[in-house]
Amino acid sequence: MHQYRPGADLLESSSAKRDLGVLVDDKLPMSEQCAVVVKKARGILGCIKKSVASRSREVFLPLYSALVRPHLECCIQFWAPQFKKDEELLDKVQQRAAKTIRGQEHLSYEERLRELGLFCLEKRRLRGDLINAYKYLDGGCQEDGARLFSVVPSDRTRGNGHKLKHRKFRLNMGKNFFTLRVTEHCSRLPRGVGESPSLEIFKTCLDKVLCNLLWVTLLWQSGLD
């Protein structure tokens, strides 16, 4: 809405700007960022398929985990996809990688993930959200956590001792911010998980919980523990 001039030159307006590797647009749906990382991940996956002859699990899976998936998850707590079409776009990269591994061709995507010991990207995003929330609430970032989250007093909670209050946002885009979307999931964790004495123990317990969930969003939003 404003025009800026450093000297005599007029700065052109832009609907998107890259900041610390993340492409942020003016409405914050993060669809452009999803498209960018998918294109990069597909390119790297294609290079691996062309340059590596082996399609064995022992060779191909570590290459995917080390070279492709990090592009789909770098800073994901900030730019997590908001639309189903973007979630599917990201997941198709992992689907293609899993199908490439020898012996997985006849299996469904869910069966391939179980055979390979992988989580779908939706579960991994949830896992990352919960791990970061744990760091803010119980780890070395507690001072920041006090500013980010409002914790319900433990004497008023049942089950998990770290119930978080929902904060209201005037705009719908606020619902997708990390500090809000992780609140319900964090509050639904069993007490033994949410009150783990260390980060490593928390990760181990969390993985056991997530392994028992087929569709994370469907189960947790419907109130099933």
Plain-language structure description:
With 225 residues, the chain is mainly alpha-helical. It has eleven helices and two strands. The protein has helices at residues 31-51, 57-73, 76-79, 84-100, 109-116, 121-137, 142-148, 178-187, 191-194, 199-211, 216-221, and strands spanning 16-19, 22-25. β1 and β2 (22-25) form a beta hairpin. α1 (31-51) packs parallel to α4 (84-100) and α2 runs antiparallel to α4. The N and C termini lie far apart (47 Å).
Q: What is the terminal-to-terminal distance? A: 47 Å
Instruction: State the major sheet.
Output: 2 strands, antiparallel
Give the helices and strands as they follow along the chain: EEHHHHHHHHHHH
Total helix count?
Answer: 11
Outline type: flat
How would you state the average pLDDT, rounded? 82
Q: Give the uncertain stretches in residue-range form.
A: 215-225
